[in-house]
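$ fold --in a.seq
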Amino acid sequence: MAYKEWGDPRNPNVLVCVHGVTRVGDDFDVMARELAETYRVVCPDVVGRGRSGRLQDPQCYVLPQYVSDMVTLLARLDAGTVDWFGTSMGGLIGMSLASMPGNPVRRLILNDIGPSIDVLALERIGEYIGQDIRFTTFGEAVQYIRAICATFGPHTDEEWRQLAANVLRQDEDGKWMWHYDLGLAVPFKIMTPEAASVGETMLWAAYDAIRCPTLLVRGTQSDLLSLETAQAMTRRGPKAKLVELEGIGHAPTFMHAGQIQLAKDFLLG
């Protein structure tokens, strides 16, 4: 598992930032630069994405595997405590870690994710992540990313180019393709309603076991984290502080000053 590291490697204040299902650690570059004077910021590429390796069995692209990998990463970092910022899938990993007895998570930010996940949203994600789409030019790829990621909210042209560059690579013919294993889609395709229900029950149990201060960020137009679930999270478990961001769906990118300040205020306040 590859990861990027910002700031002083001897700094005992460690912030781990983990991305969403098809994204990579590069997504946190802007926020990491802002926080590098205060934190040692670590931004991994979860297995199957970006610079990290691929699994032989795509059915293993599931939460228990990711949590196990992160436990190994935390041991390598050799930090007594860590703060955790998790977007979508990265939030589920953080939620699982923070629920464990004796875990090192001091503060937890969950970016547009909770224990109850809208089934239609999962189907939407599963539909596009397994498609082997290739683009002749980088410009075509950027336009596609802008379309499927419009829920990220308003961004400049340069920001969209960066968001696209983070998750694309060129194949041997020079065409632009996804920088992740298309096998990520397999667990979505074989998910049954029964398995989804069991998974939700387990996630709520994990959330209820969390004891550290928790910030929940929700885009008001999110189709993955419902307002009902978000409000329930303010009453259960760690009783998360809820902040909603207008004009954004799934998920806020935390590339902008106001969003980064929101994270700063919670982590350092």
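$ fold --in b.seq
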Amino acid sequence: MIKSMTGYGKAECELSDKKIIVEIKSLNSKNLDIYTKIPGLYREKELEIRNIINKYLLRGKVEFIMYYEITDVSKSTNINATLVKNYYNQLKAIADDLGLETSEQLLQMAIRMPDTLNTDVNEINKEDWVKIQHTIEQALQQLDAFRVQEGEYLKNDLKSRIQLIMDYKNQILPYEKARTQKVKEKINESLRVAIESQDIDRNRFEQEIIYYLEKLDITEEKVRLTNHCNYFIESIDEPESNGKKLSFVSQEIGREINTIGSKANDSDIQKIVVLMKDELEKIKEQLLNIL
């Protein structure tokens, strides 16, 4: 099973006087990078929130957003007049610089800015915090389920591309036989010329044969390529997602493809090698988004 590092989760809960909404997004990253946006009332709980996220997510660029909506109208809400004026003056200065007409819209914008409304609640209720923690975990579980679903799509895509590489490898065989025959004819022609000139250096001739045989033989590379591709498929189906392991295996696949290309000495085989490299590059791009 593999998991994507891209995911999204959302959960909410109802408290006595407000509704808490939690949203979590994740993108690919080499490490776990957490960005949080938490209301001032709950900012003291940031470390606990980060610890909860650490338990569920291993890697990825994570954006955690928590906000609330007041549901109990009886709760007294005060406007932070000083802060609103500060926001308004800054917005008006920007509008004046741009030559825009100011209006009451600036005041509406200023009131929507952070921390302009203060409620009487200054302490976090323990029971409420337990509910909030549960809500955060629900959002993380939803994100994880999203990652699994995306991982399934990635797995099918990767398997299909590995199969394409295997198919391309099998297409090399007929060209390989034809290439070997051409080389044999070339060696025979060289031998005929040498005999006619009565100038035969047998040691040199044997060295040339060995050189061509080693230069042409790609059997070992094809066997290793097959083994690496099979191991890649096995690793995809392992219980734990391991993008780094798959990346290492893909590097080995690339090494064998490159060696086949360097030994090919044949335009038709080179074309197939280019197709294999193209599929491998697409695989590597997909692996960047795997946990």
